[in-house]
Structure formats: structure tokens, C-alpha cells
Design a protein that fits this description.
The protein is about 15% helix and about 30% strand. With about 900 residues, the protein is of the alpha+beta class. Strands 20, 21, 22, 23, 24, 25, 26, 27 and 28 form a nine-stranded mixed sheet that branches. Helix 9 runs antiparallel to helix 11.
Length: about 900
């Protein structure tokens, strides 16, 4: 059969009395996962041996260059003889005069699985699709035999090795993996393996093997007498949302201290962003760095909370108490390695070198340093995930850009929440009690002499431990001179019973806040800690908009202040109130009240609606994306005009998709977070999608049962009805899910398969929903009705099956409702459907907390079942 392996060719080519390679034998079939590995081989030419376990041997290909995670890069892979399974642990030097003479390095290893089960057919077809679970290579890959070699006996059977599109692809990475010269098993470079070293940094005492070929570039530690001098660092520009398009890598933004670590000559030096030597503050990190190879590394030092997330307050406490041994250094760039200056190399290459560098650090000195991986999926998706994890935000970097000192548009910072460094200009007290800080930023437009532009007061976030550190520093900097300038600057030394103490602008604080008021003051600001690593002169920059390919390049509105995740307040012609921009959509009248205050809960504005759509996009989109959607719009709020919009109108926002449903006008569709925000901008409060397959309005992919109680019924009756419906559906082999409607009822929803084999028509979908509803009604006619007329309900629950025809809709999970109280149609787990469940508990007011909880409908699509056998059994 095509994929069967044999070792005769392998053994015939080798003299095992002279080569350290294993003779090996064909392995027996395994029940465990299949082996995968890549060996870097400095033979006549440097190449990479790609091997996967098939039928008891390692099927092997010689790949001309390092496998690339860039889907646009195709590597020539020449099929060679099968190798034994125990070759998968070989690393060493094949002596001169032997077949394949040269040095072999274990470059990657792990397991693999075929995407298609019939491997014999795949080999015959010349298309082997794989899922790799390596330490360096992951996800979907393919080996494609070149057309000219298909079906022909040949000494050279040529294939292409290609990365397929998935979450592990890195567009723009190119040849970066060529820079990784470190064994995944021992950390050794090719040169160190050739020298006979057993591990990095531990030379063999016996005679050394011959050196490797010139192509095997050594990355050994230099013999420098002292660590490198300070290298001016690259800084980020603030962006309102991550940039679009390929060629960007997105890293998690860490909430800590930016530090540069230099190592060499048995010494390690830890420096701040301005080059101050802080080795004494972090002696453990400096001691570790003394054992690192000679280099300059850029990164962020953090304290990790119990949930393993960076915690800036914990970092401050650790420094204050001198307990810095548990701090973690997250390394994201490599500026020098030995004497080689890497700054002109593309970021993709520098990060590959950094990964290899960390692999080479002795294990005992590697406890405090971690490699910062990057993601090449959409930046908005990474930002959304970071925000749900309560992280700071995302740093987006151009993969092909060099490292440049100072601020650059090739590094952009998008924050999850309002969080900024500010300069302290004063504090207030009431008697002997500290009350708040008065803060600002350096005013670059001020006349000669400078000063601070006032941003308001920071009144929360303090505790006694923090104040014991903070107050002495404030008092040491106290002055009689007011440092604030401009019209909004505070003037008096007393206000409202408070005493104001002015402070020289020498202290920088990090604060968290809920955006800015129209006058530019912080809203709900909380103190997080002092930034001793950042000088006040740097706290000047206002946020700006990143490049957007959809807009005219180079044109950015001047912005004044940072607001919420992915949004900005942009000046409108220099006069009047600012506009809000969220996910690239300009929001007019952001302070328009859509839900008035009720029951002690505050009013909700359009700004808060679009923020919610942005925050909840990842949960909403699986249920509405690429489907026709009807919208309930209330541009003047829920007490104003309310109308149902199905069709696209002239001048519709370009972020919305137009979906042809074979009517006179197309329907509105949404494909991304920008589309959701565009609906919010138009006053769209409710989303009612078709229950169809995405991209295919003619194929249903779910069935909805709306349990609508008559007036006067208790919600306990609805709960009982949902359980009855669940039992009926599960008896048919289906997997029902449940959600609140944002009103007084519940929806029970069944996902169904919609592929070519399982596809059903809309009339079959509706007929099934009706048949099940009639079964439930017939079994208990005192409690259920299937008659739409109000007079027929009489204290019963109406089983509404009419939401399952073509063009019928049901409110989407996570959709707000245009009703008092701002309820949300909330997905539930069945364990929540019990006595005491109150659907009024799920509102827009509680959205942030609700979104932090696991999504009960995360596996909704995994519950799909073909409805065809069920229809047949029911005679439909």
C-alpha cells in the first residue's frame, strides 16, 4: 500500500560501525499518538529533515529551508528513505565519509494526526494533510506532491511543505524560523553539538568531534568582559483599536515595569527604560542574567496574582517589601546576541532568535524569564480575549519592522480599559486624612515654563499600606507653587472643606478610569501605584488612531483623551462636543439616553450600548454573523419611536453586509464587531437573526421553541415547561439549549446539522417544530396551547413554533431588549433552570460581570444532530 514503510534503503546506506545513528527496526503499531519531529541537519547543505510516523517508521522529507508559519511560503520537500522510530531521539554528528555526514540537531518534536483518516489514499493522491502538535510548529500543515512527480517512479520525489490557515499561522513571518539555532531537547547550537557538548554551556571533557559545516552558524555565548551598554528602547504609540491587515503580530500587554536586561562576562545588569541601573532592586533577576548567554533582552517585569495574571499593585508591594524573588520577566525582544546587533533585523527574525536564546539558557537560570509569544489572528479578537481576562490590552507590532528607539507607528498599544500614567500635581486632605490626588499630563502647548494640564482627581484605590509609601513622597515634593496651567486648572488652596497641597510635578502615578468627561476630566479614576520607572517628562502624549486600510492613509483626527476599549473622543473641527469612535465606527450623540433610569438603576446611553456590543461581540457573533438579521431600532430611546428594520436602507453603514434573500431589497447582515457597533450607532437595540446556516439563508441550522406564558402565570411555570420540552427533545436524540428572552419567557433552541447530507428545508423545520409542540400540548392540554390567539391561552403557556419558517426570527443570545430595565436575552445552562431563577437578573447594567463567566452556549454547535432520521421516524 502507498504509505507502507520499510528500512532496507536506510540500513543499506549506512555503516553502523562508523555512524552513531541507530540501526533501528520497524516499530509495531502503536495505540498512542503518532510521532512527529524536525531535525536540523548541517550536511553538504544545511536543511531540515521533516519526519512523521506512519506504519511503524518515520516517513521523511529533506526540506530546503526551515518550515515557515507564513501561509504564503512554500518549502520544497524532497522525499527520502524511511527512518526507524528511534531516529526520533538522535542528535549528534555523523562522521565524515559517511552518508549524510554532518551535525544533526533536534529542532522540533511532538505528535501529529492526519486530517483525513485514509493515509494510503492521501499518499496516492499526493496530498497529506496534518495537524502538528510540536513545540515550535503547531496546527494544520500539508505536504503536496508536485504535479510533475505524481504517479512517476523517481529518485527524487518532490513535495511542497505548506502551512495552512488557522490560529497558529503567522502571516509575514517569512524566513524567521531560519534564525532558530537551538535544540528543542538540549538547547545546544549546531556548533555546540559538533564540539561534543552534552548541554549548552557544558563542554565535553573528552576529544571533540570535527566542527560542523560553515552553514551551521554558531550562536554561542561571547567572552565579553562586561555586559552591553544600555540600548535606547522602542516605545509604543497609543491606538484606539488594533490595526487591521496582515503583517502584524499582537502580544499581550503586561502590567509591570519595562526593563532591559544585559548579560555577559558572568554579570547581569537590569536597567529601566531610561537606563538607570536597577540591578540592586531586582537582585534575583540580575543573578539569573549573570548565567545567561551574552545578550541584551527587552521585556517587562511583573508580579503574578493568584490567578496567574499580572498585578501592578502586587509588583509595587513586592518592591516595597524587598520580596522580588517571585517576580517574572516576560521577554519580548532580543536586541543584541553576543557582539551581533540585531536591531536592523525584522521583528519576526528577532523573536525567532529570542526563542532560541531562551531555549539555550541553563534550566537553573531560566525560572524567572518567559518568552512572550505573539498572535497573528485579528488584533481585535486578541484584544477582546485580553479584556475578558482582565489584562491591560494588546501591543501590535509590524513583523517586518526593525527595532527603532523612541515612539514609532510600528508598535501600537490598544488598551482594554481606561488606564494611563499621569503626573501628580497635588493632593487633598480633610483634617489629617488623605482624600485624593490631583493629576494631569505635561501640557506641550503651554507657554514657556510649561505646566500640567489638569485631568481631575483620583479618589479611590488607596489602602494604608500604599499610603505609608505614598504620603512621605508627596510631602517631600510639596511646594507653594500651583503646577497646573490652563482654563481648567484648580486655583484655590481650599475647596469644599478640603485643603489642597501642591506638589512639584516629579511623581508619576498609574491610574485606572472609566473614560473622560466632555471637559477632559477623568471619570471614576482609581489609583494603581507609582511609576518610578517612568519620568514625568514622558507623560505627554494623547491617544491617536492607528492606520486603517479602509481609510485614506496618513489622515488621523487629532484626539484629546483616551476613553473606553477601542474607542476615542475625537475633536470635531476643534469646537463643540467630541464624537465617540468605537471599533472604527463614529458614534454620534453618544450621551443620548436609550434606557431611562429605573428602580434605582442609572440611565443607559448609546455609548454604553455600543461599548456592550464591542465587549460581547465574540459571544454574539456566532449566533448572528452572516445571517439576515432584523433590528428593533429606537433612535430616541425606548420611550420614543420604535420600528422593526429588515432591509438595508440608502446610506447604510459600510460596516454592515447586504444579504440577498431573493426579495426586492437585500437584508442587513453583520460579519464583525464593527457591524454590531454600526447597528448600535443607528439606535439598534435588538437583534433578531434568521435561524439559518451562515452564508446560506435557504438552509435552517437550528429550531427555536418560544415558551410564552399568559398574563398572571408565575415564572416557575415557564421553568417547568422548559424542562418538559427538554425531555421531549432529548427523547428524540436532540441536544436542546435554553436562554432567557429578556422578557417573561424562555427559548429552548436545538442546533441541527446543515451539511449536504443532513440539510432540510424550511417547511420541514417548521413542521417538526409544530409536531413536537403538539405532542407536548396533547400530553398536558391544561398547561399548554399551540393556538396563537390570546383568548385561547387562558392561563396556559403558548408553545410558539412559528419562529422556524423562512424569514421568521428569534431574538439572539446576548441581544439587549428595547424594554424598561435593559434586559438581555441570556444563555443559560440547564443547571440554572430551577426554582429561584429570575430573568430580570440579566441586564445591560450587569454585562461586564456576566461576560466574565463561562459561556453556557460555548459548545452550542458541538450539539448539532441530523434532523433527517428524526423526521423519518416521525413520518414528516
Amino acid at each position: 500500500m502507498a504509505a507502507h514503510g520499510e528500512l532496507k534503503t536506510y540500513q543499506a546506506k549506512r555503516s553502523f560501525a562508523e555512524t552513531p545513528e541507530p540501526k533501528g527496526r520497524k516499530g509495531r503499531a502503536k495505540k498512542t499518538a503518532l510521532t512527529y519531529l524536525v531535525q536540523r541537519h548541517a550536511a553538504t547543505r544545511l536543511h531540515y529533515d521533516f519526519r512523521i510516523e506512519v506504519d511503524g517508521v518515520l516517513k521523511s522529507w529533506a526540506v530546503t529551508r526551515a518550515p515557515s508559519r507564513d501561509t504564503a511560503v512554500k518549502r520544497l520537500a524532497v522525499e527520502v528513505e524511511d527512518h526507524p522510530l528511534d531516529y526520533g531521539s538522535f542528535e549528534g554528528t555523523i562522521p565524515a565519509g559517511n552518508y549524510g555526514a554532518g551535525t544533526v540537531q533536534m529542532w522540533d518534536r511532538g505528535t501529529w494526526e492526519p486530517q483525513e483518516p485514509d493515509l494510503d489514499a492521501a499518499f496516492r493522491k499526493g496530498q497529506i494533510k496534518m495537524v502538528l502538535h510540536g513545540e515550535r510548529l503547531k496546527g494544520k500543515w500539508a505536504l503536496i506532491r508536485l504535479r510533475a512527480d505524481r504517479g512517476k517512479p523517481s529518485k527524487r520525489n518532490n513535495w511542497l511543505l505548506i502551512k495552512e490557515k488557522d490560529e497558529f499561522a503567522v502571516p509575514g513571518e517569512g524566513d524567521a524560523n531560519m534564525e532558530i539555532d537551538a535544540s528543542i531537547a538540549t538547547g545546544r547550537s549546531l556548533a555546540e553539538i559538533a564540539e561534543g557538548r552534552k548541554q549548552w554551556g557544558s563542554p565535553k571533557k573528552t576529544a571533540r568531534a570535527a566542527p560542523a559545516k560553515p552553514e551551521a552558524r554558531a550562536a554561542v555565548a561571547s567572552k565579553a568582559d562586561k555586559p552591553h551598554a544600555f540600548v535606547p528602547i522602542q516605545l509604543c504609540r497609543i491606538a484606539d483599536y488594533p490595526p487591521y491587515g496582515a503583517g502584524w503580530a499582537h502580544e499581550i500587554k503586561f502590567d509591570g515595569y519595562r526593563l532591559q536586561v544585559a548579560s555577559g562576562g558572568g554579570r547581569g545588569t537590569v536597567r529601566t527604560r531610561k537606563g538607570l541601573d536597577w540591578s540592586g532592586k531586582f537582585p534575583e533577576l540580575a543573578a539569573d542574567a549573570a548565567r545567561w548567554p551574552d545578550a541584551v533582552v527587552d521585556g517587562e517585569l511583573c508580579a503574578l496574582a493568584e490567578n496567574h495574571m499580572p498585578d501592578f499593585s502586587a509588583l509595587q508591594a513586592a518592591i516595597s517589601d524587598g520580596q522580588t524573588g517571585d517576580l517574572v520577566y516576560f521577554a519580548f525582544d532580543l536586541l543584541f546576541e553576543g557582539p551581533e546587533d540585531l536591531r536592523k533585523l525584522p521583528l519576526s527574525h528577532r523573536k525567532a532568535r529570542l526563542q532560541a536564546y531562551i531555549d539555550r539558557i541553563p534550566r537553573a537560570a531560566r525560572q524567572r524569564i518567559r518568552y512572550v509569544d505573539h498572535f497573528a489572528t485579528t488584533g481585535q479578537a486578541i484584544l477582546d480575549s485580553a479584556c475578558r481576562m482582565d489584562l491591560e490590552g494588546v501591543i501590535s507590532k509590524k513583523l517586518d519592522a526593525p527595532y527603532v528607539a523612541g515612539r514609532s507607528t510600528t508598535w501600537l498599544k490598544s488598551k482594554c480599559r481606561g488606564g494611563d500614567e499621569v503626573v501628580i500635581g497635588g493632593w487633598t486632605s480633610e483634617g489629617d486624612r488623605f482624600r485624593s490626588l490631583i493629576v494631569g499630563v505635561q501640557d506641550e502647548d503651554a507657554k514657556e515654563g510649561g505646566g500640567l494640564r489638569h485631568l481631575g482627581r483620583v479618589g479611590t484605590g488607596y489602602n494604608q499600606t500604599l499610603l505609608r509609601t505614598l504620603l512621605p513622597k508627596l510631602k517631600a515634593a510639596e511646594t507653594d507653587k500651583n503646577p497646573f496651567v490652563g482654563k481648567s486648572a484648580p486655583r484655590k488652596s481650599r475647596a469644599g472643606g478640603m485643603t489642597i497641597h501642591w506638589v512639584e510635578p516629579v511623581l508619576v502615578a498609574e491610574v485606572e478610569h472609566g473614560g473622560y468627561t466632555d471637559t477632559g476630566s477623568l471619570r471614576q479614576a482609581a489609583f494603581k501605584g507609582l511609576r518610578e520607572d517612568k519620568p514625568p517628562a514622558e507623560v505627554t502624549e494623547a491617544p491617536h488612531t492607528p492606520s486603517d486600510p479602509a481609510k485614506e492613509p496618513g489622515r488621523h483626527a487629532r484626539t484629546t483623551v483616551l476613553a473606553m476599549p477601542g474607542e476615542r473622543r475625537a475633536a470635531s473641527g476643534g469646537t463643540g462636543k467630541g464624537k465617540l469612535v468605537v471599533a472604527g465606527v463614529t458614534i454620534s450623540n453618544p450621551d443620548k439616553i436609550l434606557w431611562p433610569a429605573i428602580d434605582g438603576r442609572p440611565a443607559l446611553t448609546k455609548a454604553e450600548l455600543v461599548r456592550y456590543y464591542e465587549m460581547a461581540a465574540e459571544r454574539i457573533l456566532p449566533h448572528v454573523a452572516d445571517r439576515p438579521v432584523s433590528i428593533i431600532r429606537t433612535p430616541e430611546g425606548i420611550n420614543g419611536e420604535k420600528f422593526f428594520q429588515r432591509h438595508a436602507m440608502p446610506g447604510s453603514n459600510p460596516r454592515l453586509k447586504l444579504i440577498d434573500v431573493k426579495e426586492r431589497k437585500p437584508y442587513i447582515g453583520v460579519i464583525d464587531v464593527g457591524g454590531l457597533v454600526a447597528i448600535g450607532q443607528s439606535g439598534g437595540l435588538e437583534l433578531h437573526p434568521w435561524g439559518c446556516k451562515p452564508g446560506d439563508p435557504e438552509t435552517p441550522d437550528q429550531i427555536t421553541f418560544d415558551l410564552d406564558p399568559d398574563e398572571g402565570l408565575d415564572f416557575a411555570d415557564v421553568i417547568a415547561a422548559a424542562k418538559t420540552m427538554r425531555k421531549e427533545l432529548e427523547a428524540l436524540g436532540l441536544n436542546p439549549f435554553v436562554k432567557t428572552t429578556g422578557g417573561k419567557g424562555l427559548h429552548v433552541v436545538v442546533p441541527i446539522l446543515a451539511d449536504a447530507r443532513s440539510r432540510i428545508e424550511w417547511d420541514q423545520c417548521k413542521a417538526f417544530a409544530k409536531a413536537v409542540s403538539e405532542r407536548v400540548r396533547a400530553a398536558d392540554p391544561d398547561h399548554f396551547t399551540t393556538t396563537l390567539a390570546k383568548k385561547a391561552r387562558g392561563g396556559k403557556i403558548f408553545l410558539d413554533y412559528l419562529r422556524n419558517g423562512r424569514m421568521a426570527t428569534a431574538v439572539a443570545p446576548w441581544s439587549p431588549r428595547a424594554r424598561p430595565g435593559a434586559g438581555v436575552a441570556f444563555p443559560l445552562s440547564w443547571t440554572q433552570v430551577k426554582a429561584g431563577l429570575d430573568p430580570r437578573a440579566f441586564t445591560l447594567h450587569d454585562a461586564a460581570a456576566l461576560l466574565k463567566k463561562p459561556d453556557p452556549w460555548k459548545d452550542f454547535r458541538a450539539g448539532e444532530v441530523s434532523l433527517r432520521p428524526v423526521l423519518k421516524a416521525m413520518g414528516l
